[in-house]
Amino acid sequence: MCGRRRLVQIDLTGVTTPQELHLLLLNSLDFPGWYGCNWDAFWDAITGLVEMPRRLRLVGWSGFAARLPDDARLMRGCLDEMSAQYPDRAAEVEYA
Prior knowledge:
This protein has helices at residues 18-28, 39-49, 61-67, 69-85, and strands at 7-11, 55-59, 92-95. The protein is an alpha/beta fold. It starts with 6 loop residues before the first strand and ends with a strand.
């Protein structure tokens, strides 16, 4: 690895389904092709399969959270839990 990426920006403004969200996460965070596209798989990926960027900017968060509140809550919970359990490897998350 060449080191952690400084910033990954993910635009959530067009996301309307959980499937779209997980495909966007897979591509944006370089998850392996066999990523399971669910929240358990997301947790496994961010904590052990990929190196998270130093900063993660989630653009369009409020609209996304209004459209998919359960997924927004679960994603934020995973990112918050990673920061608590693995602060040296977690991304600083900006909900823009």
